[in-house]
Write a structure and sequence with these properties.
- The longest helix has 33 residues.
- Strand 10 and strand 11 form a beta hairpin.
- The chain has 17 helices and 13 strands.
Length: 580
């Protein structure tokens, strides 16, 4: 049973070159990818490269005087962090200042305009039934031309295009709309409700005051004015009917205005959202949404009701922050998923999906100030930190050379490989996941020097212990490795666990330190297993190390080695048969 095990051990010892070739190929591939991508230097954080600082001030919502509180502010900070940072390592800082301000620091190299939109947009999404719609500036009409259709799977069509139609007299048309809106509001929960009621000028008497007020707002609404579009329907609760403008012009180049019923489905009912390109129709980018189980039921209920109505009350409006993004018509009950389509660019679709995915802000904010941050102070601190790191590295190398002599070559080469892998990965992770190198991250890289050197020392000391027991170098290396490996893995696991906990429970710059520490800890395991151990196995075959040269660091005499462990048969003494 022992013979096969010995054969496997000899085979493993005779092929350390494979591990060395593997890690060298990986280094070459990563370095080639770095140069091919054009990102040959790590992306720097705001403290090293400068950037943009945005101050956002919370605004009180109508009817919610106590909305600005610590809970809502902390929730807003968390959502903004997730929107801007994605994985949390791009080093954009989001933190509260005082009771109603949030400071957002965005590093240089980030699209600050896009980031400003991400953090400042409330992203409150509602699905509201359309009660009436018309082109802004045209005579009011309750029967616009048919809008884009929605597929049975729940996919919303392109943004609806509506045109005004003539009516006998403006007053009669307005009265008809008032009655239609009133009927729709009263019968909103009834599947058989229809807004196709005919009316005459005398019908205005039956229109309640709330509907009359809403109708007056609708008639006065001028969606061609940007300021009016931004404030249309502001202050309306989700349970109330409201007026709104289209976010963009319709296909005819005109602005659409709407009277919308109470919200039936909210953004909180969305389970996930994503931006995809419509390859089938070639219509461009769109945002897909999957509902929760409760949201799917709500969506099926409202579309089932709308499918029985006449245009335009068979449409539902997808309203984002008070503006209608899309208004598809419905032919049957839909559930499960929906789409927001239109003239989106890739960036716009991804931004919208990102905001819907991470949720709406609990408060509305306005930009109080936008300033540019210089990197002068951070540059000085980086210079001082690099000097400190260089001094620390030099001291480690001097210690290795003096104490381990020839073995220091292996340690220094391993440190070099670890440094190359760390640099290349930092350069690649910048554009890949938004990683930015800041001062705490530099500190994490400097601390990693000690962690990596500690792994070499554990391995070398295990080898020396075996030599002290009287073993030659090659068996000593193979016997020392399992024990050293166990110690190295336990030590690195503890370091990685500490870095992971620190990364999870902190935000901002401290996450940069934790991420770098965790990355270099993983690289330490890779380097020790695929470079340090195979290189030690190869050098153990060389005469300089195998014979224990006094400058090899493995001189048996200097280590106080015992005589070689050899089993010798003692000469048998003559036996006296009489004594026996």
């Amino acid at each position: 049973m022992a013979a096969p095990k010995k054969g496997r051990s000899a085979s493993a010892q005779s092929r350390p070159g494979r591990s060395l070739a593997l890690i060298l190929i990986a280094i070459a591939a990563l370095t080639g990818g770095m140069f091919a991508s054009g990102n040959t230097t790590p992306r720097l954080g705001i403290d090293l490269a400068g950037g943009t600082s945005i101050t956002l001030t919370a605004k009180n919502e109508p009817g919610q005087p106590n909305a600005i509180n610590k809970t809502n502010m902390d929730t807003a900070v968390d959502i903004m962090n997730r929107r801007v940072n994605g994985l949390g390592v791009s080093e954009a800082e989001v933190q509260t200042q005082g009771s109603d301000n949030i400071i957002v620091n965005i590093p240089k190299g980030t699209n600050s305009q896009q980031a400003r939109q991400q953090v400042g947009t409330t992203a409150k999404l509602y699905f509201r039934p359309v009660l009436t719609t018309d082109v802004s500036g045209a005579a009011a009409s309750s029967s616009p031309s048919p809008s884009a259709s929605s597929s049975p799977s729940g996919k919303a069509g392109d943004k609806a295009t509506s045109s005004s139609s003539s009516s006998p007299t403006p007053s009669a048309s307005a009265t008809t709309q008032g009655r239609a809106v009133s009927d729709a509001l009263k019968a909103d929960s009834s599947p058989s409700a229809s807004a196709s009621t005919s009316a005459s000028p005398s019908a205005s008497a039956s229109v309640d005051p709330a509907t009359a007020k809403l109708q007056a707002q609708y008639e006065a609404l001028d969606c061609t004015d940007k300021a009016v579009r931004a404030k249309a329907g502001s202050g309306a609760k989700p349970t109330e009917a409201t007026v709104a403008c289209g976010q963009d012009k319709n296909s005819s180049g005109q602005w659409q205005k709407y009277i919308l019923g109470p919200a039936e489905v909210a953004g909180t009912d969305i389970k996930k959202a994503g931006a995809v390109f419509d390859t089938q129709s070639g219509a461009g980018w769109k945002v897909t949404m999957d509902f929760t189980s409760g949201g799917s039921k709500k969506f099926a209920s409202i579309t089932g009701k709308l499918a029985q109505n006449q245009p335009p009350q068979n449409q539902f409006a997808i309203v984002l922050d008070g503006q209608v993004v899309s208004d598809p018509s419905v032919a049957q009950s839909l559930s499960g998923s929906a789409e927001i389509s239109g003239s989106f660019t890739q960036t716009e679709a991804q931004d919208l999906a990102n905001m819907l995915k991470y949720g709406a802000l609990p408060l509305s904010f306005k930009e109080s100030s936008v300033t540019t941050v210089t990197a002068a102070l951070g540059g000085e601190q980086l210079h001082a930190g690099l000097i400190a790191g260089a001094i620390g590295l030099a001291l480690v190398i001097i210690y290795l050379v003096i104490y381990y002599r020839g073995l220091s070559v292996i340690a220094i080469a391993s440190l070099g490989v670890s440094a190359i892998l760390t640099y290349v990965l930092m350069a690649l992770l910048g554009p890949a996941i938004g990683f930015a190198l800041n001062l705490p991250a530099v500190c994490g890289a400097i601390v990693a020097i000690g962690i990596t050197a500690d792994s070499f020392i554990v391995f070398f000391e295990r080898i020396r212990d075996e030599i002290r027991e009287g073993r030659t170098l090659r068996p000593a290396v193979e016997r020392a490795w399992p024990r050293a490996r166990r110690t190295i893995l336990v030590s690195d696991f503890v370091s990685f666990l500490a870095a992971a906990v620190l990364f999870i429970v902190t935000v901002g710059k401290v996450q940069g330190f934790a991420f770098t520490l965790g990355l270099t800890t993983v690289l330490d395991v890779v380097v020790v297993f695929f470079f340090t151990k195979p290189l030690m196995t190869i050098l153990a075959r060389k005469k300089f190390f195998a014979e224990g040269h006094r400058w090899s660091g493995l001189d048996p005499k200097r280590l106080g080695a015992k005589p070689p462990l050899r089993r010798t048969r003692r000469a048998s003494a003559p036996v006296d048969t009489k004594e026996a």
